[in-house]
Amino acid sequence: MQRRHFITGCACCGLLARASTLLAASQGPLPARLQQPEPGSDEGGLWSLLTREEERLKRSRFLLRDPALNAYVSGLACRLGGEHCPDIRVYLVRSPFFNASMAPNGMLQVWTGLLLRMDNEAQLAAVLGHEIGHYVCRHSLEQLRDAKSRTALGQFLGMALGAAGVGAAGSLAQLALLAGMFAYSREHEREADRIGQELVADAGYPPIEAAKVWQQLVAELKAEAEWSGDAGSRSIFFASHPDPEERSQAMASRAATMNGDTGDAATAAYARQIHGHRRQWFEDELRRRKTGETIALFERLLRQSDDGETRFFLGEAYRLRAADGDGARALGEYAAAESRSACPPEMFRSRGMLQRQAGDTAAASASFRHYLSLRPAAEDAEMIRSYLHEGL
Ligand SMILES: [Zn+2]
Fold first, then answer.
1. Could you tell me the distance, in angstroms and rounded to a whole number, from the CA of residue 196 to the centre of ligand 1?
2. How far apart, in whole angstroms, are the C-alpha atoms of residue 30 and residue 113?
3. Cα 308 to middle of ligand 1, angstroms
4. Is pLDDT at 357 greater than 80 in this prediction?
5. Where does residue 205 fall: left (phi above 0), alpha (psi -120 to 50 degrees), or beta otherwise?
6. For residues 208 and 215, is the Cβ–Cβ distance under 8 A?
7. Higher confidence at residue 139 or residue 148?
8. Domain locations along the chain
9. How far is CA 355 from CA 24, 315, 344, 360, 365, in A?
10. How far is ligand 1, taken at its centre, from the CA of residue 194, in Å?
């Protein structure tokens, strides 16, 4: 069902005269489809550079190529983008950080760390809608023409050109550079937030979910700050997106003026779509070594779905953090995992490791043997057999 009554289009800034003339004064559809710019113009130059970057991205080893998940996220972007659908190309990037970005040529990156953090389809729609907002309002063109932003963009262009032949999407750092090339102004972010939330409501999702995306991230960052005093320092997204707390409050207030929390957030549908990937994304998340954020995230996911897999990975986060009491916390989570569905066999290996460290060789031996019985051909099976052979 199409209900195109919320969308109020781009209103932000002076350079948007061409786009904004396409809009009704207060309400109307998104701006019309964007034309490819003239090759000789500044925007045309940027497009041709981005087209080359996109070709590299298509070959990147970080792309998640699962056709079903790609079709799902692309389909959602398409539904939100309306007539812009043919111009938007979604790329799923396997990286554990919360990040999504839209380039002015329609190249939309969504990172798996973001997908893991979404509670439901409505939240993913809010993020995609935000990026579509930047795109349809041509914020990047404003950045290109704004003297203050030119330096940062120039650095990107210099690096991208400098990396020609190497493959600028070859490393994760370069991918991050490509994703974060436009540090939008606060006004642009507010406008993209508003459009994203309007698209969410327009598609029939509860608009409050847009605010929850940011509340959840704020909770993770606070947990990290409490743990390490290092809040968000490695978050690529927050380097270019200001003050999540303020934005979440603005979106919660706006949701109250829309249809609030009514609508179907499509929680179960979203869980089904990402189910086959969650295990990999949990493992990737552990490798970030941001245990404050990771534990806060896993505890939140546990409240949604208390299964053996989530319990196991929460236990892993404690085991790897290895602070006072974490060994006991990990063992507690492993025990809970064992009694629930979807407990990974690796739980027995991890439990064996902790028991071995604690000097409980009999228990460790039993755990390792159980692991080998479940995963006889595991990559580390030989190592575990050697532990057993050497008497632990
Ligand atoms: Zn943004």
1. 10
2. 29
3. 35
4. yes
5. beta
6. no
7. 139
8. 14-257, 276-389
9. 68, 14, 18, 5, 9
10. 11
- The CATH number of the domain covering residues in 276-389: 1.25.40.10
The verdict on pTM exceeding 0.90 is no
Which residue type is seen at 111?
Answer: W
d(CA 277, CA 296): 20
Model pLDDT, residue 2: 44
Residue 100, classed as helix, strand or coil, is strand
Ligand 1 center–CA 251 separation, angstroms: 14
Q: Say how many Å lie between the CA of residue 313 and the centre of ligand 1.
A: 31
**Distance set, CA 303 to CA 112, 257, 293, 299 (Å):** 20, 29, 16, 6
Q: Which of 250, 254, 122 is nearest to 187 (CA)?
A: 250
Question: Tell me, what DSSP letter sits at residue 109?
Answer: E
Ligand 1 centre to CA of 236 (Å) is 12
Q: DSSP of 233-268, one letter per residue?
A: TT-HHHHHS--HHHHHHHHHHHHHHTTTT-S---HH
Ligand 1 centre distance from Cα of residue 192 (Å): 6
User: Given a cut of 60, is residue 236 above it in pLDDT?
Assistant: no
Percent of the chain at pLDDT > 70 equals 80
* CA of 390 relative to ligand 1 center, distance in Å: 55
Token output for 102: 């839209």
| Phi-psi region at 322: left, alpha or beta (left = phi > 0; alpha = psi -120 to 50) | left
CA of 184 to the centre of ligand 1 (A): 6
Name the token pair of 136.
Answer: 């349809």
Q: Tell how far the Cα of 306 is from the centroid of ligand 1, in angstroms.
A: 32
